[in-house]
Amino acid sequence: MRTATLGDLTLLIVLAAMYGSAFSAIAVAVPAVGPFALVLCRVVIAFAILAPVCLGRGWLWPTSPTGWGQVVFLSLFNLLIPFFLVSWAQLTVNASLMALIMGAGPIFGLLIAHLATDDDRLTPAKALGVLLGFGGIALVLGGDAFSGKSDTGWRSYAAPAAALLASFFYAASGLLVRRTQALPPTQLATLVLGMGGLGLLLTLPFTWSGLTVALAAAKSGHWLAIGYLGVVTTGLAYILRYRLIRTVGMGYFGISIYLVPVFGIAVAALTLSEPLSPTLLIGLALVVGGLLIARVSPRAANTPPS
Predict the structure, then answer these.
(1) CB atoms within 10 A of CB 91
(2) Cα 176 from chain centre
(3) pLDDT (mean) for 264-274
(4) Which of 70, 75, 245, 298 falls between 20 and 30 A from 173, CA-CA?
(5) Cα–Cα nearest to 110, from 11, 225, 257, 236
């Protein structure tokens, strides 16, 4: 790892914009094709984009059972499971609220680092940041920003829980990305996508009829959103994510995740005309403010990005 440069910071902001815009694209596509078809298309398109790049550079395979285990783990917990959870949740939750809930990722990261490491413990500032972040999410989940829901039954509770679980999986699996050093970032991202795509394709004998019906119902606007999700927010974003985690460290990489709710809510307001309610904006301020307080804790302020 090295000290972050201006170029790294630019890539962090670009990545945050990619991730933030994904929720609006999902909101367009998932009601038409459903979660399974959407996840399958995202993964297959992203793999088709990245595989030729890896082949051109010389394909690499993990050289140990541990390496293969890491790829399988990442394909499940950094790809398939959170993709399904987010897509399913967005059948109920609007894009703005989803972006805010996913802002819990760095908060989970602080807690995981406290439990899993000896040198990145919670400080008073970090603890305050965690409280503010989760407080902001709790405020929104209990406030009028939930007027964007399309379901008032059990899904209204299960969908936010699914989104929070996806956020937790992203944070936890991100620690493994940092430790998976045997493969270059593009190779690792491609293998993870390929493993995930293979797992989905193996289910086709059981899901084919429903899949064909779902895809046949998709219109040009839905395919545009699916293509954007596959190429930009999955393929390109995975390369940037893995590269930045390795080069500047998980802590500095978290800056991009801090900005995801901001971009997500802004894009949803601009493209989907989702309302910016006072509760949503207050919740956003609490989440981002809490993360910034945690970031500028005494330890972080005196330690160069790792």
Answers:
(1) 16
(2) 15
(3) 95
(4) 298
(5) 257
Measuring CA to CA, which residue among 255, 262, 261, 257 is closest to residue 296?
Answer: 255
Say what the pTM is.
Answer: 0.85
Residue 298: pLDDT band (50, 70, 90) is: very low
One-letter amino acid of 15: L
CA gap 68, 71 in Å, rounded:
5
Instruction: Classify residue 187 as exposed, middle or buried by CB count within 10 Å of its CB (0-12, 13-18, 19+).
Output: buried
User: 124 is written with which tokens?
Assistant: 């008073």
pLDDT at residue number 300: 41
Integer angstrom CA distances of residue 215 from 34, 36, 38, 80, 292:
9, 11, 9, 19, 42
